[in-house]
């Protein structure tokens, strides 16, 4: 086992679909996608995107959670993966820069326990960022910070992700599992990622590999943004 801790993105990773995107398509304003495009071009940070998009969601929380329960299942290989890691004493933590409100209910519905969750907070129709960086306001949840904290507590960190919001975790993780958009992002950033399709792939690699490639770890995160 080459990791002391495993961090996992949620939307499109632990969850088979992007639950935030599903909510915006169902309950948001059509302009939500323009914000995503501006974020992908590097014109705005994810915190600004999440703040603006969350303001579009005025449906009751119960209705939104019910919608994602119906449309956004957890990857069926994730639960067994968590149980395997737990049997080895390796903590698995969800690290998400999404809306936050649906993660715990979806994990509970899938019967998945003993998973930490680091994400943004949704309360009374407003979003806040308790897991953001103390100085940088580029991201809502600082995935770089989550990786560094996990390494300090547990040793080498494995990160599993798939999208733009996972870039900064990948840069600082000891081993990164990438699919979809994250593959090309890692290639551009010089991150030696491991391809994966489901969590059985991740498990097999962690079981067989002897030493992680190590982080790129730039001195300053490329997403650094001051108020």
Structural notes for this entry:
The protein has two domains: 5-17 and 74-208, 3-Layer(aba) Sandwich (Rossmann fold); 19-70, no CATH class. Helix content is 41%, strand content 13%. The protein contains ten helices and eight strands. It has helices at residues 19-27, 32-40, 46-54, 61-71, 78-87, 103-109, 143-154, 167-172, 181-189, 199-208; strands at residues 5-8, 92-95, 116-118, 121-123, 126-128, 157-161, 175-178, 193-195. Strand 4 and strand 5 (126-128) form a beta hairpin. The mean pLDDT is 95.
Brief summary of the model shown:
This protein has 227 residues and is an alpha/beta fold.
Topology:
Blueprint (H helix, E strand, L loop, with lengths): L4 E4 L10 H9 L4 H9 L5 H9 L6 H11 L6 H10 L4 E4 L7 H7 L6 E3 L2 E3 L2 E3 L14 H12 L2 E5 L5 H6 L2 E4 L2 H9 L3 E3 L3 H10 L19
Parallel strand pairs: 1-2, 1-6, 2-3, 6-7, 7-8
Antiparallel strand pairs: 4-5
């Amino acid at each position: 086992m080459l990791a002391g801790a495993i961090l996992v993105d949620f939307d499109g990773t632990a969850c088979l679909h992007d639950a935030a995107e599903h909510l915006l398509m169902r309950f948001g304003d059509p302009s939500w996608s323009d914000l995503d495009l501006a974020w992908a071009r590097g014109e705005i940070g994810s915190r600004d995107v999440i703040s603006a998009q969350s303001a579009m969601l005025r449906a009751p929380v119960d209705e939104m959670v019910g919608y994602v329960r119906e449309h956004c299942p957890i990857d069926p290989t994730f639960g067994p993966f968590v149980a395997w890691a737990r049997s080895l004493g390796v903590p698995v933590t969800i690290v998400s820069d999404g809306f936050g409100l649906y993660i715990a209910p979806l994990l509970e519905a899938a019967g998945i326990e003993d998973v930490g969750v680091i994400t943004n907070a949704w309360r009374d129709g407003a979003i806040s960022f308790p897991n953001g960086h103390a100085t940088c306001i580029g991201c809502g949840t600082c995935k770089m910070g989550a990786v560094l904290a996990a390494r300090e507590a547990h040793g080498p960190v494995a990160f599993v992700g798939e999208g733009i919001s996972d870039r900064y975790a990948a840069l600082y993780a000891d081993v990164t599992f990438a699919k979809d958009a994250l593959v090309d992002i890692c290639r551009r950033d010089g991150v030696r990622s491991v391809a994966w399709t489901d969590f059985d792939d991740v498990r097999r690699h962690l079981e067989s590999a002897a030493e992680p490639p190590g982080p790129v770890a730039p001195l300053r995160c490329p997403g650094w943004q001051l108020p």
